[in-house]
Amino acid sequence: MGQRFPICNANDVIRVLRRNGFKKVGQTGSHQKWRHADARQVIVADHKWFTRVAVADIIISKLKSLDLKYPTVSKARMQELQIAREMLESER
Questions:
Q1: SS3 annotation, 18-72
Q2: What whole-number distance in Å separates Cα of residue 56 and Cα of residue 66?
């Protein structure tokens, strides 16, 4: 079997590059260009935004599927709540 490499994100790669003398020299969109003094260069793609968009889309879809509604309140209960509200506001 081939050699297994550790799973790492863009921040991990950037930390290693900095530790080894690379400097960020440019960026286009989510792709950052890092260059070493000896002319080696590395392009690091940081696609965190895509993960965030995908997760947000999943959450929104799930919330919509729940068909949530505001609770209904009877007139008698609304009157009780109004009296309680007036009492609390008068305490200020």
A1: HHCCCEEEEEECCEEEEECCCCCEEEEECCHHHHHHHHHHHHHHHHHHCCCCCCC
A2: 16
- How many domains, in total, are found in the chain? 1
Q: Is residue 3 part of a domain?
A: no
Statement: the pTM of the whole predicted model exceeds 0.70: no
Q: Per-residue pLDDT tens for 41-92?
A: 999 998 887 888 889 999 999 999 998 999 999 999 999 999 999 999 998 7
CATH of the domain at 18: 3.30.920
**Residues with Cβ < 8 Å from 21, sequence gap 6 or more?**
36, 37
41 — phi, psi (to 5°)?
-140, 155
Q: Is residue 28 part of a domain?
A: yes
Q: Is residue 2 part of a domain?
A: no
